[in-house]
Amino acid sequence: MATRYLVCITGASGAVYALRLMSALAARGVVLHVVASQWGARVLLEETGRPLGYWLGKLRTQGGPEGGPALIRLHDNSDFSASIASGSFRLSGTVIAPCSMGTLGAISSGTCSNLIHRAGAVALKEGWPLIVVPRETPLSLVSIRAMTQLKEAGAVILPASPSFYGKPKDIESLVDTVVYRILDHLGIVDKNVFRWSQEEP
Predict the structure, then answer these.
(1) Tens of pLDDT, residues 66-79
(2) Burial of 198 by CB count in 10 Å (0-12 exposed, 13-18 middle, 19+ buried)?
(3) Is 39 exposed, middle or buried (CB count within 10 Å of its CB: 0-12, 13-18, 19+)?
């Protein structure tokens, strides 16, 4: 079976996290499935000046291994007949980045009103990695409780909190400190990532 990952983009600020994550996954030759909510696509356009289709087009043509084509499948967020809506369509991991509080709350309550919600529910019931990347701050008690429910159900709550000890030199490098943590939790280890201690025990 091909190695497949799903990246979901929702209407929270931080579209660059999704773009950098998709780029990192595509470069590894995986099959990349993508879903964006209406507001996720809108925020991405507002923050980058380009629509999602532009970025996916770049990845498809030159974002794969060694600059070759990447394997990407875009799904409509209203399409419950999509392959990723079923647990029989095996994925190696699902990441919601950035994850809005509305999406987080819907999944934690078991509500599935769109494909992203359903994909989160499928990941939880099937037991493969579900990583949600919230960026909102400060957090209300409602959101904290929703995070607790998701954590108890098996999700990884990975806030978009960049680290600085690697002395990132630009925004992309700063964003990548979060992306590399996502990859770690997907079981993808990048030997080039700067870690707190490189010393062997």
Answers:
(1) 999 999 999 999 99
(2) exposed
(3) middle
Tokens of 32: 């990349």
Position 201 in a domain? no
DSSP-H helix ranges across the chain = 15-26, 38-48, 52-62, 101-109, 115-126, 141-153, 171-185
pLDDT in tens, 162-172: 999 889 999 99
**Residue 107, pLDDT score:** 98
User: Would you say residue 195 has pLDDT above 90?
Assistant: no
CATH number of 42's domain: 3.40.50.1950
**Other residues' Cβ atoms within 10 Å of the Cβ of residue 18:** 26
Q: Is 67 within the bounds of a domain?
A: yes
pTM: 0.95
